[in-house]
C-alpha cells in the first residue's frame, strides 16, 4: 500500500485574515498546519500553535523545523511601525526557509504598481510603486528574489471576509458590531476596483502549495477575485445583504481625513492609498488559472453576507 506523506506548513499570521483562511484551507487539503503566535487562541481549530514572535529569529527558526512551506502572512497590527518592522519580520522567514528548504509563500498586493499607469497588471508588469507602503511591498518581493529561496507570491486586491483585519471593508465602509445604516465608499463612481474574498484566496494558496514542487523556484501569480467594474457592485451587495436594497452609499470624506491622521496611524496609511480608488488596477489571473484551473469563487452576495454576519453588522 502506498504511503501518503502529510506535508507541514508553518503560518506566520495564522490569527489574521489571509493567514487564518489559508490555514483553514490547508487543513482541509490534508496539511499539518503549525501557527506561530504571540498568544495562541483558546480554540486550536486543528492548528498546532507555537508561542513566539515573528520578530524573534530564533522562534521562527524553531517553529519552521520540518516544514515543507512557510506562509508569511504577518503584519504589524494597525499599521504601526510598518516601515521599521516589516522587512525584519520577512528576513526571519527567509532565513528559516533557507535553513529548512521550505517554499516561502507571500500574500502580495496591488500596491506594488502605479495605479495611474497600470490599469491591468500582469505578474511581471513593471513595479513602480507610487506610495511608501507600495515601495516596502516592492522591497519585500525583491528581498525574497535576491535570497534565492524557493518562493511563491500571490497578489490580490482589497481583502474582505469573515475574519476582520486591516482592510477597507471592515475599517472604512461599515462599522463592525453595528447594524449597517450607511455605507462609506472610498472610490469614485465609474472607477473599477478589485476585491479578494479571503476564504477564496486561502483556497487558492492551498491549491498552489499542493503543487508547489512543480512550480518555478520563484513563482508569481495574480488572484483576480471580484472585479467591481464601476464601483457599485460591492455597495449594492452590502445593501442587499442587510435587506436595504435602496441604501445608497456616501462618498468617503477624503478632505477631512488629514484632520484625524495625526492621531491615528491607520488613517495615515489609508490616506496614502487614495490613488487606488481614483484609478483602476485590475489583476490578470491567466497565469494562476493555467496552473490551478478556475479560480475559487464564492458568489458575491454569499461572501458579503458571511462577512457582515461575522462582523456583527446584520440584525437578526
From TrEMBL:
Domain NAD(P)-binding residue range list: 13-158
GO cellular component, one term: cytoplasm
Origin: domain of life: Bacteria
InterPro entries attached to this UniProt entry: NAD(P)-bd_dom, NAD(P)-bd_dom_sf, NAD(P)-dependent_oxidoreduct
GO molecular function: aldehyde dehydrogenase (NAD+) activity
Protein name: NAD(P)H-binding protein
Native source organism of the sequence: Sphingomonas alpina
Lineage, broadest ranks: Bacteria, Pseudomonadati, Pseudomonadota, Alphaproteobacteria, Sphingomonadales
Amino acid at each position: 500500500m502506498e504511503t501518503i506523506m502529510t506535508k507541514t506548513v508553518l503560518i506566520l499570521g495564522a490569527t489574521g485574515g489571509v493567514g487564518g483562511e489559508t490555514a483553514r484551507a490547508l487543513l482541509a487539503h490534508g496539511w499539518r498546519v503549525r501557527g506561530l503566535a504571540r498568544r495562541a487562541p483558546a480554540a486550536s481549530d486543528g492548528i498546532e500553535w507555537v508561542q513566539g514572535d515573528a520578530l524573534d529569529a530564533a522562534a521562527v527558526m524553531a517553529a519552521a523545523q520540518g516544514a515543507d512551506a512557510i506562509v508569511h502572512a504577518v503584519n504589524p497590527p494597525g499599521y504601526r511601525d510598518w516601515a521599521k518592522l516589516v522587512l525584519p519580520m520577512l528576513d526571519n522567514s527567509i532565513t528559516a526557509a533557507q535553513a529548512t528548504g521550505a517554499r516561502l509563500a507571500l500574500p502580495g498586493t496591488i500596491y506594488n504598481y502605479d495605479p495611474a499607469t497600470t490599469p491591468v497588471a500582469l505578474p511581471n508588469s513593471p513595479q513602480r510603486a507610487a506610495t511608501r507602503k507600495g515601495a516596502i511591498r516592492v522591497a519585500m518581493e525583491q528581498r525574497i528574489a535576491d535570497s534565492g529561496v524557493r518562493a511563491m507570491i500571490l497578489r490580490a486586491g482589497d481583502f474582505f471576509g469573515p475574519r476582520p483585519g486591516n482592510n477597507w471593508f471592515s475599517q472604512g465602509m461599515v462599522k463592525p458590531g453595528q447594524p449597517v445604516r450607511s455605507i462609506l465608499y472610498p472610490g469614485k463612481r465609474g472607477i473599477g476596483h478589485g476585491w479578494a474574498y479571503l476564504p477564496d484566496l486561502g483556497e487558492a494558496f492551498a491549491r498552489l502549495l499542493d503543487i508547489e514542487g512543480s512550480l518555478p523556484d520563484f513563482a508569481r501569480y495574480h488572484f483576480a477575485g471580484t472585479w467591481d467594474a464601476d464601483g457599485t457592485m460591492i455597495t449594492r451587495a452590502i445593501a442587499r445583504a442587510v435587506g436595504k436594497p435602496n441604501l445608497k452609499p456616501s462618498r468617503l470624506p477624503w478632505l477631512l481625513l488629514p484632520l484625524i491622521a495625526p492621531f491615528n496611524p491607520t488613517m495615515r496609511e489609508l490616506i496614502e492609498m487614495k490613488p487606488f480608488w481614483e484609478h483602476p488596477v485590475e489583476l490578470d489571473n491567466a497565469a494562476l488559472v493555467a496552473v490551478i484551473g478556475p479560480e475559487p469563487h464564492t458568489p458575491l452576495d454569499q461572501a458579503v453576507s458571511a462577512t457582515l454576519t461575522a462582523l456583527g453588522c446584520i440584525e437578526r
